Amino acid sequence: MSDLHVVLGATGGVGAAVVAELTARGHRVRAVSRGAATGPGSLRADVTTTEGAIAACQDAAVVYQCAAPKYERWSKEFPGLIRTILTGVEAAGAKLVMADNLYVYGPVGVPMTEDLPHAATNPKGLARAEVDRLILDSHRSGRIRAALGRASDYYGPGGVNTAIGPTIFAAALAGKTMRWVGDLDQPHTVAYLPDIAAALVTLGEHAEADGRFWHLPAAEPITGRQFLALVQAAAGGQPKIAALGRGTQRLIGLFNPIVRELGETWYQRDRPFVADDSAFRKAFGPVDVTPHADGIAATLDWYRHHAA
Predict the structure, then answer these.
(1) What angle do CA 58, 61, 65 make, to 5 degrees?
(2) For residues 151 and 148, what is the distance between their CA atoms, to the nearest angstrom?
(3) H or E segment and range at residue 202
(4) Confidence at residue 245, expressed as pLDDT on a 0 to 100 scale
């Protein structure tokens, strides 16, 4: 039986972390990206095409789907991307592990559990719900085996295309104002990239994970003010903190399409946004997650050595 684990979107934040975790666990890895191949075991392939998806997934035992369209094109392109990837996974006879998020639930007033209805009505939430339906329908019909791992906003080494990225860590190191997107005093589940990767690989390794979605383990919910205070302490000095509020988001969004898109899911930022990961812990525990202070220190160190 093949022990080849294929990572799609391997140069992104989540994909690169999954490659590192698989390698650390001794698995044979193929790192797939749309750009140039980056080293041994890597493959350049366009998985938006059937030919590219089949080539990327060939001989795989498990495929980790970490690729994504540009954020502003999710609603138009994500379902089509998944249909193509499903073709590649099916041709390989592989299992699919989807790096998912929490958009499907829409606005909620309680900690999110996996049994909440998929009540999102915004375009991105509807697109993610369609993606999940396509994957689980393919599992139920026997086309593939699949598991989905849902995570909240993330930070960590290599995490540059995230709201908890350069505007916080690079800004702190440069002595500039750190900006938290949303209300500074609302509790928010934030995930550390290596913890996300470890949980996704666990889903890939366990057959009992198949056929459903899981909330991936993260450290305790934290407010933006608390998170930025930890960054201040680790960075040294006293970088200022500020909230990027709804009005500022609207203003910047007039000329920045990525910031403009944040308005669609502002409900994730103006009230508690907390994920319950107890089902994963019960099924696959004990689980060790990285304390926020340790994750922040490692992330700052990465930015010191990698960020421009």
Answers:
(1) 80
(2) 10
(3) helix 193-205
(4) 85
Tell me how far apart the alpha carbons of residues 181 and 172 are, in angstroms, rounded to a whole number.
15
- Residues whose CB falls within 8 Å of the CB of residue 32, separated by 6 or more in sequence, listed in order: 6, 7, 8, 9, 10, 42, 43, 44, 45, 47, 56
Give dist(CA 239, CA 263) in Å, integer. 26
Beta bridge partners of 42: 31
Taking only the tens place, the pLDDT of each residue in 178-215 is 999 999 999 999 999 999 999 999 999 999 999 999 99
- Tell me phi and psi for residue 4, to 5 degrees: -85, 120
Can you count the helices (H) and strands (E) in the chain? 11, 13
Q: Give the span between the Cα atoms of 35 and 121, in whole angstroms.
A: 34
Does residue 301 lie within any of the structural domains? Answer: no
Task: Look at residue 36 in the predicted model and tell me its pLDDT.
Answer: 65
Domain that holds residue 127: 4-155+190-219+274-290
228 located within any domain: no
Q: How many domains does the chain have?
A: 1
CATH of the domain at 38: 3.40.50.720
Which uninterrupted H or E stretch holds 30? strand 28-33
C-beta atoms surrounding 130 within 10 Å:
17
pLDDT score of 244: 86
In a domain, 305, yes or no: no
Q: Which residues contact 170 (CB under 8 A, 6 or more apart)?
A: 303, 307
| Spans in the chain with pLDDT lower than 50 | none
Helix (H, G, I), strand (E, B) or coil at 293: helix
Cis status of the peptide bond prior to 272, with omega within 30 of 0: no
172 belongs to a structural domain: no
CA distance 79 to 85: 10
